[in-house]
Every structure is written in structure tokens, then in C-alpha cells.
Amino acid sequence: MAKIIVLCCLIILAAFGSVNGSSKKQEVGFYELKKGDISMKFTNWGAAIVSLILPDKHGKLADIVLGFDSTKEYQTNAPSFGAVVGRVANRIGGAQFTLNGTHYKLIANDGNNTLHGGPKGFGHVVWKVKKHSNEGHTPHIVFTYYSVDGDQGFPGALIATVRYALIGNNQLSITMKAKALNKPTPVNLAQHAYWNLNGHNSGDILSNVIQIFGSQITLLDSHLIPTGKFESVKGTPYDFLKSHPIKSKINGLANGYDINYVLDDGVGYKLKRAAVVHDPKSGRVLELSTNAPGVQFYTSNTLDIKGKGGFEYKPFAALCLETQAFPDSVNHPNFPSTIVSPGKPYKHYMLFKFSTN
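Predicted structure:
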């Protein structure tokens, strides 16, 4: 049986052409999709969304995703703009966990913790472009990445796949899948786009009106690691069960929003609404649905970097809505499990609907 597993892994290695540490390198480039009023650009560095251009309520076009102009900037900067982050998104406390009796020590890159899979997590590597079609009713692009056993300290070889597709009327579908090849391993992939519905170079998002369909948050310690407990958002600055401008509540926090919401419809494969964002100035609306149990709401609190066109991105220049499993789930048995085993693949769906109001 062991020989069969090794043979399968060798076949997969050959199919992918290169893996971590291989001398054969794939070129990093940009790829485009267009359908109706939406045009998008991607890069295979981190399988990232580079831009999303669509009209406002007056028909004026704007790019509503923060990012860079060149592939080199994506490879040499840290914010994970638009990237697919993993093998495990968000934080793992103490950069360690125990699985089936084996203790695993990861590479720490956020103090003593591991953030977004480590310093060479999925958002900081070259993905293979498996498919790319800008024609027909469903323009789409598919990225794949082979992660070796021991990558950043995680157990087992893993194949991750991300499919972006423009569907229907101004809708973006994202499907993330992962297969464990030889060992159980934690998997939690997330899309880390920085959104500013008024345009990436328009200033802050504090006037955006947001509704988040989560009545609880996962409580954090001083290092932003979950304690394992949950707390109701009612009567707190985290209460967006009804639509409110971000600026109406953010002053109740020390540093802005960076918190996981427990989505109310529970865990499962049925898509449920995670959040709705409305920018009053442009009229653009973003509605996000997912099958994930949580969504991280982040208001780019410490952002300070030069982006597209030389524009200076500052704190609160964008918001992130990262649908995900709960942070540090691998160390909290009461959280939904993130363990993926051979024969039991990982699936994560997101649907972004754009409109104007």
C-alpha cells in the first residue's frame, strides 16, 4: 500500500512539473477575465485577484480591489493583496498543534504564531494555471498548487485548486478544493482581497455601510488567538446584524476590526449570506455568500504601502471579508474541524454578487 501511495505522489509531481524547492520555475504573469460589465485580472503568484473593474451607479468604471501594477511587487511585498492564503488561513497559536498523537511545530511568522500558513504560505508561492478561458457564458481560470509533506511544518502532501468564474449578471464564483494525498492535515483556505467599492484609490472605507450575518464572534486573547469561547455581538461595536456605517462603531475599538464572525446558518454545504457592503458614494453593493462557518472582517488597520499607480494605501483604505473556518481550529476541539484526510477532500465556496443602489 505504501508503494502505491509513493507511486501516486511521483505521478502527481510529474504532472505538476515543479514543487517547492524545485529548480524548474514557472513564470509569474497576469491573466484576464471579462463578462458583461465586469473585467478582472489575476496573477498566478498566490492565485491572487489583481483587479476587478465595474461601473458605479452613474456608469463610471473603477477598480475596486487594492493591489500592485507589476508581478515583481506581488512577489516582494507582504500584504497578501487578493491572494489565496493557506495551507491554514488566519492564525495558529504558538505555531504548533497535535494531530493523532503527533506534535507538529510550524514556522512562526506572526510573533510566536503562524499566520496564513507561514512565511511561504500559499499566498507567497507560484501556482500553476491549469485552465484559462475568457470565452463563452462562463469565463474562468483555474489555479493549482502542490504542497509537499512538511511544507511550513504541516503534515502530508496536498493538492489545492482554486477556480474563479464570472457567472450570471455581475457575479464572481470562487471554488476552493484540496486533497490530502497521504496524511491527515489541517486545511483552511481563504480569499484575501482588499475591497474598496468606491475605487482602490479613493481613500478610506469608513463610510461604507455593512451588514454581517453573524450574531457571535470568536473571542481573542491579546495576541489575536481565539480563547475557544464565543461572545454575542449584541450591544457591542461588533454588532452589524443590521446595516450600519463602519465609522459609526469603529471608534469603540482600539485598532479597528480584525475578528472572526460565527455565521448564523451553521456549518454545511448550503450557501448562506455572510455579509453585504454598500458604498453610498458610488452606489456599488457587494453581497457575499459562502458555505464556510465563519468570516473574518478586517479593516486594513495597519496598512501603509504604495500600490497601483503609486497611490499610497493607508489604514482603513479597504476592508477584507475572508470566509473561512474558525482561526486556530486545530487547537480547539469545540470548533468545527479543519482536518482533511485522504479520500475526504476539502471544499469551500464563495459567491460575490455586485450591483448598484
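Summary: The longest strand covers residues 346-356.
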